[in-house]
């Protein structure tokens, strides 16, 4: 019951901010060009700062072993979801890259950080940073190329020097060497990091206002992506990860992150490269709505299957 309430609250918060973003677009407060500029700020400034600050926590030897487990399980989870998404979403369409991106990458930052903190506390949040690290490494390389439709080596190199990937490397080095920022700059960067959730939701809301959501619920392709993102892929990842008998808290942290709705990054990427973001926005909104039911169910079911 506690898990269900926490998840429900996060979804309500998400849609309140999303609705404000939609209202701002409808009233002309946020324009199409403004949406693109906000996406550039989110992707190149706010998101990297959030990643870096997630590593500005206290080093603890007791948690390092669990963190290594988290990296391993996160890698397994992404391997399973990427392979299955390519097998299940095979029909070649103009939006296949967007569909596969949305099936693979979850909204693990906004949905998971407060949720995992409420269930497992700071220990769970630390393990979640492993999943977030791989998310940012993959989403800025593999994910970005999916949306852009380019698979050449130069595109891969550009992705590896993106602000978020650089933030992952610097943040991890600082964590492992116990290097912490002084109080004043740390507080300044934390204010920027705290902008991530509301800014991402405002962008998603402004984009959603440009789509017909009623029509979105009638599209079979969106329901296929939703089924993959919310049920098939997280369930498959859980089964594979469970075979290794990992620590329960680590297993459930990665499982919950994998079972979250589609990432807002897909919409922001599409906006930033002048690609039609409507499909990404439709999938994001549909998966977020339906996750109000599926996320508590899959969390409770996996809890019981894991024997907790």
Number of strands: 0
Q: CATH top level?
A: Mainly Alpha
Report helical residue fraction.
over 70%
> What would you say the CATH architecture is?
Up-down Bundle
Give the terminus-to-terminus CA distance: 15 Å
Tally of discrete structural domains:
1
What is the fold named in CATH at topology level?
Answer: Na+/H+ antiporter like fold
Report the order of strands and helices: HHHHHHHHHHHHHH
> Mind telling me the C-alpha Rg?
18 Å
The overall average pLDDT, rounded, is 85
- Oligomerization state: single chain
Number of helices: 14
Question: What structural category characterises the helix and strand content?
Answer: mainly alpha
Beta-strand percent range: under 5%
Return residue spans where pLDDT drops below 50 for at least 5 consecutive residues. Answer: none
The major beta sheet can be summarized as: none
Shape from CA axes?
A: globular
